[in-house]
Amino acid sequence: MRIEAYTQVQQMYSAKKAANVKSKSNVSRSDQVQISSIGKDIQNAKQAVAGASDIREDVIAPIKAKVQAGTYEVSAESFADKLMQKYEEMR
Description:
This protein is mainly alpha-helical and 91 residues long. The chain has helices at residues 3-24, 37-51, 57-69, 76-90. The longest helix is centred in the N-terminal third of the chain and has 22 residues, at 3-24.
């Protein structure tokens, strides 16, 4: 295996790279980003979700009032049905 041949080829390529870099250094370029309309829609949707509350007060308020009044009751049968339904979904 001749190592000196590889060195000569490498020197040729490195000489060309240096010349190319010097000629391109005077050119100024700027990057541009374009967001598609779908991307903008997704951004708007994310902002709307981030601004929305995690708690639905219209659903919670009546339940909270019943709990505070001591009148909130949970049916054992209803609870067991929902528990089994969740168990089946996880299987």
